[in-house]
């Protein structure tokens, strides 16, 4: 599902410091700037290989990579020759890379969500650290890509919106060669009844403990969580988060944006409505204890959250981020508490790794790191 990403210029950068000097209890944000010191991109794509190697992707053809924990960032834009023509002339296509998956310092796959046109929707692959990119997928018909997920470095799935939100199923593409090529997968059970996925953080599809998971929403029906053992045959579970009955199918902002499982039983979803006027709700976060078969809403009320991630090895600890704040759960999603530092409003995506460390990416070039005590 497409929605706009505001970009504000300029934003001051704080001084370069060693990752070991980051604070232990609050986000520390370092906006990425271009050679002229200006912020030119916002980031929804985030891939944390380690606490030293992080890739981000976003608007204006942008991809950046750090190999020293954020002290410096390498500009790795995806240079292309795509154009579009209208009544006033021919113009270059500007891609918005809503998701990225990196496997090391050299190999990465980036996904441009698009706006339903052929040129803007695409997948790109690099094997030399982003110095050169090769397009590995363009749809045959106008469509919108939402997110990537990976079982391993070779096998991954891509979810796309239905061509017709009122009648068609969500679509799945599959790769077995690490993103160099993709093919459509014939699926059952992904009938979304007017719903779409959300390209908000690159996490509306996930793989964990041998299963695939997808979240979708955007219609008056309840937001759904789909699960599958093979990526082909899917089962759906309804949640308590519903859309606006007065909004056209497939275009309501209400829905779950992110799904994460820490094992075969325990799962989290977060979302809501990305409208700035949307109210808080305990339905904006939900948890499962049975592998996604059933979902219970949180006992805490939250504003819209676009990304969620478990902290590996920390039991029920997880972090959720969104354009209005960051929250922490210590009990697997039953309740959430606020992390109330100034920079928490920057983020769209979050990924936590071993060592109780989380990285986040967001608007105005923001990339942040936090250590959860």
UniProtKB/TrEMBL annotation:
Entry GO MF terms: hydrolase activity
Keyword list, A-Z? Hydrolase, Signal
Fetch the Pfam families from UniProt: BNR (PF02012)
Cleaved signal peptide residues: 1-17
InterPro entries with a match to the protein in the record: BNR_rpt, WD40/YVTN_repeat-like_dom_sf
Matching entries from SUPFAM superfamilies are given as: Oligoxyloglucan reducing end-specific cellobiohydrolase (SSF110296)
Output this protein's name: Oligoxyloglucan reducing end-specific cellobiohydrolase
């Amino acid at each position: 599902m497409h929605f706009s990403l505001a970009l504000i210029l300029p934003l001051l950068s704080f001084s370069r410091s060693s990752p070991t000097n980051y604070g232990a209890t609050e986000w520390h944000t370092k906006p990425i700037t271009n050679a002229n010191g200006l912020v030119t991109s916002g980031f929804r794509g985030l891939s944390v290989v380690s606490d030293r190697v992080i890739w981000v992707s976003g608007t204006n053809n942008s991809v950046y990579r750090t190999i020293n924990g954020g002290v410096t960032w390498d500009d790795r834009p995806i240079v292309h020759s795509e154009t579009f023509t209208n009544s006033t002339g021919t113009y270059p296509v500007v891609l918005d890379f809503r998701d990225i998956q990196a496997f090391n310092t050299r190999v990465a796959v980036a996904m441009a969500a698009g706006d339903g046109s052929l040129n803007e929707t695409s997948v790109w692959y690099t094997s030399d650290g982003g110095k050169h990119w090769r397009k590995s997928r363009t749809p045959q018909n106008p469509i919108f890509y939402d997110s990537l997920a990976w079982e391993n470095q070779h096998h991954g799935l891509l979810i796309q919106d239905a061509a017709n939100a009122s009648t068609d199923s969500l679509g799945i593409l599959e790769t077995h060669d690490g993103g160099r090529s993709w093919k459509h997968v014939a699926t059952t059970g992904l009938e979304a009844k007017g719903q779409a996925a959300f390209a908000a953080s690159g996490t509306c599809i996930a793989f964990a403990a041998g299963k695939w998971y997808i979240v979708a929403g955007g219609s008056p029906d309840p937001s759904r969580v789909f699960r599958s053992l093979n990526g082909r045959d899917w089962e759906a579970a309804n949640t308590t988060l519903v859309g606006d009955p007065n909004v056209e199918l497939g275009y309501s902002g209400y829905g779950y944006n992110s799904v994460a499982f820490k094992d075969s039983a325990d799962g989290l979803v977060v979302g809501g409505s990305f409208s700035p006027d949307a109210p808080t709700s305990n339905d904006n976060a939900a948890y499962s204890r049975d592998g996604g078969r059933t979902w219970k809403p949180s006992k805490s009320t939250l504003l819209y959250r676009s990304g969620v991630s478990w902290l590996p090895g920390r039991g029920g600890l997880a972090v959720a981020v969104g354009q209005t704040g960051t929250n922490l759960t210590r009990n697997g999603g039953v309740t959430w508490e606020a992390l109330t530092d100034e920079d928490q409003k920057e983020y769209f995506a979050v990924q936590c790794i071993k060592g109780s460390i989380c990285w986040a990416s967001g608007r105005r070039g923001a990339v942040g790191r936090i250590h959860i005590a």
